[in-house]
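Support reply, case 0932

Customer input (verbatim):
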Amino acid sequence: MEIDHVVLAARTRADAEEVLGRAGLGVARGRTIPGLGLSNLVVPLRHGQSLEIHYPNGEAPAPDAPPLLEFDTEALAAHPSQPLVPMAWLVAVEDEQRLRKLAVTHEMPVVEAPADGPGYPPYTLAGFGSNFDRRFLPCLIHWPEGPPVLSAAHRRQPVGITGIDVAGPADVIEGWCGGKPNGLHTVPGTAGPLRVTVGFADGAPLPLGLAA
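Our regenerated output:
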């Protein structure tokens, strides 16, 4: 069971690009996320994994929007020295029926999202919203046509997400996912994802997020 991607909050696009540039990572795509007051940057790694970075775009969220901008703003204010703060993580579930069974068991909402431009196929998402009060829980994602095939002008060769540190109860997380995601390390607390580590074939790994 693999981590699909990790969402991190940034104050500005420039802040995100500075961190990525120093790390030797490029961006494959970015867009305005309708109704959320946020835009994003997608950094492809390997094996379908990626980093997704959110930053405020100056637009007011829609009245019925999920409070993602509020969550991001609060986290960045709490950690003023950190340019990127992990906010959410998603675990890939290869078998759609398994995802739907977990969704029923844990009363997760399920969303069917359409394709979103070249290289970004449709997906099924479970758990979004029901993990807002327990942010240590990941969303579960299934790609019926296979994960995104994106490329970027990296200066280093990433091998993927090699680890994630999450403040949360291991037994609850593993029950929610139906197993232990590869690379998961839990620590006491309930704050959710603290840091994500990206591995490289050509050098030291890169931790992103809060200091250990």
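We compared this against your earlier run and they match. Two observations from our side: The chain has one domain: 3-209. The longest helix spans residues 13-23. Please reopen the case if you see a mismatch on your end.
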